What we know:
Elements: E1 3-9, H1 16-29, E2 33-38, H2 53-64, E3 70-72, H3 85-95, E4 100-106, H4 107-112, H5 119-125, E5 127-131, H6 137-151, E6 154-158, H7 167-175, H8 186-194
Parallel strand pairs: 1-2, 1-4, 2-3, 4-5, 5-6
Amino acid sequence: MKKIGILGGTFNPIHFGHLILGQSAKEEFGLDKILVMPNKNPMYKTISGGVTEQNRIDMIKLAIRDFPYFEFSDMELRREGATYTVDTLRELKRKNKEDQYYFIMGADSLYQIETWKDPDKILSMVNVLVATRNDSRSALDAQIEYLEEKYHGKIFHLSSPSIEISSNEIRKKNISGQSIHFFLPEAVIDYIERNGLYEHK
């Protein structure tokens, strides 16, 4: 049995906040690997900036190439139509029945999880690892207690450093001509520059 982390998102672009979150989950919970899984057509977020699917794939692969415990997964990209977390988890569990899955998310996603498709089934299939930003710990504890009691899931705090970086902030900085160095790997910055991504039009 392997312990597999799932780190999903639009990754538009992937940045150090994502990578630190995945590394913290691996170390704290003894995970064997982290699947970095970009969304295709997420129901809850628009993929902005004019990037292509291939752009996002390329940036992810550049960001994780030196870290063998990160593994790119195109599972959601291969699916037609809107992508739902519950369908992804069903597919993973069907292929690897013995493996144990850990879904890594931020506190903002945990507060919204009941708006997702079939939250009860999601929480029955995975352990949830939730990272805090500057949220009130007591409020987050209350949300965890509420969800665990209602859905009988297992939700754990992830002691990841609080990295206040967002993909949206990176896009805005680049459009306005500000430096994005130290927010994401240099290989990804070089790719963004070479391909003219997130530039002012």
